[in-house]
Amino acid sequence: MNQVRVGLLVAAALLAMPLTAAAQPKKAQPKEINLDEEGAEKPAEAPTEGEGAGAAEGEGETPSGEGEGLGDICKIDPSACPSINMDEAAKRDINAEMYAVQQIYALRRFRFEITPYFGITMNDQFVAHPAPGLGLNFYITNVLAVGVNGNFYAALNSPSNFNFQTSRAARVGIPITEYAWNANANFSYVPAYGKFAGFGDFIFHYDFYVLGGVGAIATRPIAVVDPDNRTFEYKPRLSFHVGGGLRIFFNRWFAVVAELSDYIFFDELENPGIPIGNDANGNPKAQDPTTWTAPETSFTNNVQAQVGFSVFLPFSWEYRLPK
Amino acid sequence: MMRRFVNSLCASRLLRRGMLAALTGCAALAMSAGAEAQEIQLTGPLAGAPAVRKLRLHRAGRIEITPSASFTLLDEYQRTIMPGLRVMYHPTDWLGFGVWGGYGIQTTTSLTDELQVKAIDERNCPTDSNTATDTACKLTAVNLTRGNLAQDQLGRMQWVAAPQVTVVPFRGKLALFATLFVDTDISFFVGPAVIGVQERAPCGKDNDGNTLTDRPCAAQSSFQLESRIAIAPTFGVGWNFYPTSFFGFGAEWRALPFAWNTSGFDNAGSGNDEAFPDTAVNNKDRQFRFNSMVSVNLMFSLPMKVKSSD
Known about the structure:
A: alpha+beta, eight-stranded antiparallel beta barrel, B: alpha+beta, eight-stranded antiparallel barrel, two-stranded antiparallel sheet, 6 helices, signal (chain B), Outer membrane beta-barrel domain-containing protein (chain B), OMP_myx_plus_Proteobacteria (chain A), signal (chain A), Outer membrane beta-barrel domain-containing protein (chain A)
């Protein structure tokens, strides 16, 4: 019976301990936070590297609680106190699998990317070629994708005031063209991935990509030299596509995209000269369509700045990669 | 920790001394331990932790000396390449004050070359436009020199000096090919810019509208450049990389919006909204342009040692 009393007293004393301990660090207790999906499942474990709120930037760090934990063991049971030389242990070579940027936030492998965007001309002061566009990509690996993209220019081409003023002042006709559409098949590669801390408070992720492809663009000259006689039809031409862009992720399936793309092709320009006289049938040569275009094609870079957003499908996926 | 302590007690002495007391005590302890675990779950171990630890402060308390080369974009008649220098002091890692300046060197665009060949050289207009027989020569006498287009009438930015405030809201790191990584930040800057501009001197009428009888625009002698100072806002964004503690590199885009006459043409001054030529070249022919440029920067920071955040 005495043993029972002693046992109950010990139990009562022990009961009091955690209650006191719980009250003690009231002001030092951390605030409630909204943990991310994975982290929320095991909050008491060591902080994950990379995207977690405690991610180390720069030189890395030693978790502050490690030493305290060993000290507690020694206080409770000196015989169980581990005899580890911490200095020696710290010098050991560790073959840890580390990546420059840990925990890629949005994996792309086996996902579709749908990118609506709007593009504006960067290098043509004479005619603006704004265009809505759409890009579709499928990522074969996390960094390599195959896809298509297209731009719709028709009805949005607009000759500039600069073109008008230069022609008026110098009395020189400058050949200009307009575009109808363009379509390309592309390979995309993502060589760089990173993350930013915004105002030292929140973290967002981004990546760089480059792309290259081949396709077609439909163009036609705008008649400025002899608009009375000349009308042109759109013709598709072989074009090459090179570009690069930046994608900033807002969550794991939505990102904003800024891209600079160059659509390279040989364009047909209006003939700056007007043939005079009549042909063998008595028709004016100026009305012969074969005389309307310049004899040589012109190497053209249609450089376009594109801004849009990306949606990745499926929205969620199983996180299997180690980084 | 408390749970392990309790478990060891339960498994050893108390269990041997009194099964009932131990069971009662362990049950009670388990209840309180469970309550404490629940509280930890609510708060979380990372609560209150900063978003980033051990951040290398590449800017805080340092002077940054940055040689740069700037290249103007979307030029119509002349491109400007501008070697320059930026000196900044950053009292904190996110705020800096300094000045940027550069000296402009011009090269002509293909449009200027085409105009020189087709509109000036091949047309071969006489020096005195009154003696011209070619209609094009008569009509373009006000707008085209008979000499060198670039030297006689095209506007140019000679130099720029711009005090500026820089804010660095975004700081991060970038992995290249998943192996190399580099510290990086994005900065925004704004300030006033003082620009030394050369553009075609007024002819026909001065900037106040008074007739300049001794300087008709059709006379070849009117084709000369005059210097002036333009004040404009400047702002932009930069992306910087820090491979070492004292050296970095980056690129920035800068806007310098102001009105000037890049062509030396008589574009405006009469008619509706003064949108038609008035055979005079003056400030009415200046047009607002969103001049922009891209700079490539090499950044050296002093002192060379970099600090880290907590």
